[in-house]
Amino acid sequence: MYELNDIVEMKKPHPCGTNRWQIIRMGADIKIQCTGCMHIVMLRRKDFEKKLKKVLEKASESEN
């Protein structure tokens, strides 16, 4: 599953060419930020889960 500050890959790449997103807010909606151009997108949890491809990095691993 995914948690706050995880790096995730979505099914479609962002127009800037990067397909790495950081989860910056979780709740009923999930806010993600493109790691390439820092663009922020807010999605409903249902839509996020449908568009999520995989978790690339867990937040706990990158903090160590």
Describe the structure.
This protein is of the alpha+beta class. It is about 20% helix and about 40% strand. The chain has two helices and five strands; from the N terminus they run E-E-E-E-H-E-H. It has helices spanning about 45-50, 60-64; strands spanning about 5-10, 20-25, 30-35, 40-45, 50-55. It has a five-stranded antiparallel sheet with strand order 4-3-2-1-5. Strand 2 (about 20-25) and strand 3 (about 30-35) form a beta hairpin. The longest helix has 7 residues, at about 45-50. The radius of gyration is 11 Å and the shape is globular. About 15% of the residues are buried. The mean pLDDT is about 95.
Q: Given the structure, what is the number of helices? A: 2
Give helix and strand order, one letter per element, not per position.
Answer: EEEEHEH
Overall structural class, as computed from helix and strand content, comes to: alpha+beta
Distance between the termini: 19 Å
Could you tell me the mean pLDDT? 93
Helix content: 10-25%
Q: Poorly predicted ranges (pLDDT <50, ≥5 residues)?
A: none
Calculate Rg over CA atoms: 11 Å
Approximate strand percentage: 35-45%
Strand order of the largest sheet: 4-3-2-1-5
Q: How many strand units?
A: 5
The largest sheet, given as strand count, sense and whether it forms a barrel, is: 5 strands, antiparallel
Globally, the shape reads globular
